[in-house]
Amino acid sequence: MRLLLFVNLIAVVVLAGALGHMYQGAPLPWRLTLGAPAAHEPEAAAPVGLAAAPAPETELPNAPVTPVPNPLHASAAQAPAPASAPAPQRQKLRILTEGAYPPFNYRDDEGRLAGFDIDIARQLCARLKRECRIEARRWSELLPSLKRGEASAVIASMLIPSPGRQTPPAPDGVIFTQRYYSTPGHFVARKSDTAAAGALGLAGKRIAVQAGSAHEAFLKSRFSSAVIVALPTLEAAEAALADRSADLLFADRNAVLRWTRSGEGADCCRLVGVDYTDRSYFGSGAGIALRAGDEALRDEIDAALSSMAEDGTLAQIGARYFGQSIR
Fold this sequence. Notes:
By secondary structure, this protein is an alpha/beta fold. It is built from ten helices and twelve strands. The chain is elongated, with a radius of gyration of 53 Å.
């Protein structure tokens, strides 16, 4: 029995040796290769002309991914809004007037500047959203001060230069805005004289007028058949109508509007007929004087004056001093 076991053992050893000699240098046929070959075993070369298959990409789980914002590429919505730049400071306006021509510009009982021109100036400053300072100077100094750069504008009932015999030429270095009131000529009659409504048949009528004025020149040109009573001052011409030394008075409409609203003129007289607006005699109205080169400011003022005319502000200011619009 022992002999039989020994013989079988010898047979197994011989068989194993034969198989090892047959597969020398190659893996045994029953060996399973899991994963990559061992470090000490060489990889089998890919067949010539065929590329090795690439390793499959690793798939990540389907989990939500939260992006991390890059502070250097933040969107406009995420970036803080820049601070708004402060509004540029508007230039303060320095306005000159005379202060000695009521009711247009004068000093009230407390010494403050008042009048039609002053109300216009203050309304303009409010509309332009500008801080303003209004100062009074002698009439002869208004334009020289403006041209020296000591003021931004002059609002003092200055007539806009117009071509004609009675209006002065435009001063050098000065420009004007559109008119803020007109300056036509107008007839005045006594309230008791119902036949003097208008310039109907003025032949032989005695017409009081200020001597040397545009109004006298206009009468001589247009109503030469009338009797012209030329007097040294407007006040003297007004008195002549009131005391019946004249049948009519011809003068600046705005001046006689004021006279017929107060004092002796209110008791005796009234305006009759229509405005006479011949620019060669009565100009283009009163405008605001500025330095040449300040066209941008002039355009701003013109726009404000137009809006004041459209919304009735000019008429309201006129009614305050003259009982009606003088636009």
